[in-house]
Write a structure and sequence with these properties.
Elements (H helix, E strand, L loop, with lengths): L31 H9 L8 E4 L6 E3 L9 E3 L2 E2 L23 H5 E4 L3 H9 L9 E3 L10 H4 L1 H12 L3 E5 L8 H9 L3 E6 L5 H7 L6 H13 L4 E8 L8 H10 L4 E6 L6 H12 L4 H11 L11 H4 L3 H16 L20 H5 L1
Parallel strand pairs: 1-5, 3-6, 6-7, 7-8, 8-9, 9-10
Antiparallel strand pairs: 2-3, 4-5
């Protein structure tokens, strides 16, 4: 089936709006790019736009029993990295936008994040737990270079001695090494770099605008040399596409000096499943059926399993084999021996404007 939305350098092969919200299919809006498409027949480069968002609060809470944190901050909605498997894609549907190309090109930024964070940390009775960043969309995606919202958040956390964990696919995290190094010396920060594939040809379609794996591993090495705890997340593992690289990534993580590694099988909630199937048809038509068959085997015969705990690991023979391979590789390279807990006893609430003047 032809897909007119396919764009070089972008992840999603289509831009349909989700049926579950009864939204209309996106139509040409009459701008000059649409006219050019009609005249020339070739798709122009897809422009990234950023809309300013003004939320009332910035700390998101969750009570999921299979997630190791209860609060998180997301400086942005949408992600220009364009990872086809991103489980955050369906969130764009709530803005009447497509989880496809819209998710990676029509972004939202929260420039008031640091101000909102100060207000929330100052509330009486605030209970300190590590704040997770990068749990939904990447805090170090390309637009962070201009907006610097992630850095402004880290500055508040460093000032108040509040613990933070960061997950990212970008070596841009090294820009904030000055803050992270200081926080890590007080056991207040740790970073996980996600490495999905060491094969450039796969990465270019799987996560087209994320930095190369070699840059991410170099960032792990730089973080460790600076004394910052750094982990490698093999997330997700895509059966039939990247699973053969599992042991190689564990080895690369060890060589980079990572504290440890963890993995997650690919998840395909809501609109991610049809997008992922379209991506397979576009880039791996020779094995598309095999890949989906293995995923369904791990997910109880469905594209996705939303149940707590099993959603993170899958179940059945294929999931068991994946875990066995991972555990053997970890033991071989001496990883995951010790996991340092971040401190929560150093926290000092932000001072008010008057006190900061004294």
């Amino acid at each position: 089936m032809p897909r007119p939305d396919v764009r070089p350098g972008r992840g999603a092969p289509e831009n349909r709006t989700p049926d579950r919200f009864n939204l209309k299919q996106r139509e040409a809006d009459g701008d000059w790019l649409d006219e050019r498409e009609l005249q020339d027949g070739d798709l122009p480069p897809l422009r990234t736009t950023v809309t300013v968002e003004h939320p009332r609060t910035i700390i998101a809470r969750n009570k999921s029993p299979d997630i190791g944190f209860d609060r998180s901050i997301n400086p942005y909605r949408g992600c220009e990295h364009g990872c086809i498997y991103c489980f955050a894609r369906p969130t764009h549907a709530f803005h009447d936008l497509s989880p496809g190309l819209d998710f990676e090109s029509r972004l939202f930024a929260k420039p008031d994040a640091a101000k909102l964070l100060r207000a929330e940390l100052r509330k009486r009775g605030y209970q300190v737990r590590p704040i997770a960043m990068g749990t939904n969309t990447d805090p170090y995606q390309p637009i962070e270079g201009k907006w610097r919202i992630t850095r402004s958040i880290l500055e508040v956390l460093a000032e108040t001695k509040h613990p933070v964990t960061i997950t990212t696919k970008s070596d841009r995290v090294l820009r904030d090494l000055d803050i992270l190094k200081e926080m890590a010396a007080q056991r207040l920060a740790s970073v996980a770099l996600s490495v999905t594939s060491l094969t450039p040809e796969i990465s270019r379609t799987l996560e087209p605008r994320a930095p190369a794996a070699r840059k991410r591993l170099a960032a792990v090495k730089a973080l460790r040399e600076a004394g910052v705890p750094a982990w490698v997340a093999i997330a997700p593992v895509v059966p039939g596409i990247t699973d053969h690289e599992l042991e190689h990534i564990v080895k690369a993580a060890a060589e980079a000096g990572a504290n440890g590694v963890f993995y997650l099988p690919v998840r395909l909630p809501f609109e991610v499943a049809p997008l992922f199937r379209a991506w397979l048809d576009e880039h791996f038509p020779d094995r598309a059926n095999k890949v989906m068959a293995i995923i369904r085997e791990m997910r109880g015969g469905k594209d996705n399993d939303p149940a707590f705990f099993t959603r993170m690991q899958g179940f059945g023979p294929w999931a068991t084999l994946l875990k066995t391979r991972f555990d053997r590789a970890v033991r071989k390279h001496g990883l995951n021996i010790e996991k340092q807990r971040l401190r929560t006893d150093l926290f000092k609430p932000p001072q008010g404007a008057q006190l900061r003047l004294l």
